[in-house]
Write a structure and sequence with these properties.
about 15% strand, alpha/beta, about 50% helix, about 210 residues, 5-stranded parallel beta sheet, Rossmann fold, 3-stranded antiparallel beta sheet
């Protein structure tokens, strides 16, 4: 089963991806992680991505989707995968569908995590992120230590209130149309109330999946 996670910044997609991966026994695949890994490992597509990054350009969707295709053909994804951040625009949704079809796979479920805008601003404005492993923490002060890797926690500039509002507007403009696109392509989007304790949100997601 291949599950795509959607939702605005601060909705907890990364946290829920980890939880669902653990409960369902399949890997979480975060686009940023696999991109960095491909560059670090010096794969063919990783070298191609690095050439764009070194010039300060955005890595094209075609290159990122190629890296995702490589990952999705590995034995680790035999049972499926949780895709976090793989789809942010309609062209990416279209490209992912084509990429998966080339290896005989498809998106099986789409989960949309929904949270009120005011709550999102509140969450993100109190969020810190590990400089090393990028693990997010809520309510932890900058300068404290990451429990996973021992790195230093920092507050990102794009987690300031005004920047958060701008990010939400980008989400409305670029990502919300993906919801309609999946609907038009006969893929039901499962809406999850992402407000509340993490474990409760996970239970709602598993319930929506029929697990």
């Amino acid at each position: 089963m291949i599950i795509v996670l959607l939702g605005p910044p601060g909705a907890g997609k990364g946290t829920q991806a980890d939880k669902l991966a653990q409960r369902l026994g399949m890997p979480k695949i975060a686009t940023g992680d696999v991109l960095r890994a491909a560059v670090r490992d010096g794969t063919k597509r990783g070298r191609e991505a690095k050439s764009y990054m070194d010039r300060g350009d955005l890595v094209p969707d075609s290159v990122i989707l190629g890296i995702l295709q490589d990952v999705m053909t590995s034995p680790a994804t035999k049972k499926g995968a949780i895709l976090d951040g793989a789809v942010r625009t309609v062209p990416q949704a279209e490209g992912l569908g084509v990429t998966l079809a080339e290896i005989g796979k498809k998106v099986d479920k789409v989960l949309l995590f929904e949270v009120d805008d005011d709550e999102l601003v509140k969450r993100l404005s109190t969020r810190t992120v590990c400089e090393g492993c990028q693990t997010p923490y809520m309510g932890r002060e900058p300068g404290t230590v990451c429990e996973k890797c021992g790195g230093r926690l920092v507050r990102r500039k794009d987690d300031e209130p005004e920047a958060i509002r701008n990010r939400l507007e980008v989400y409305r403009t670029q990502t919300e149309p993906v919801i309609d696109w999946y609907g038009k392509n006969k893929m039901k989007v499962l809406r999850i109330d992402a407000d509340g304790p993490v474990d409760e949100v996970t239970a709602r997601a598993l319930g929506a999946l029929g697990k």
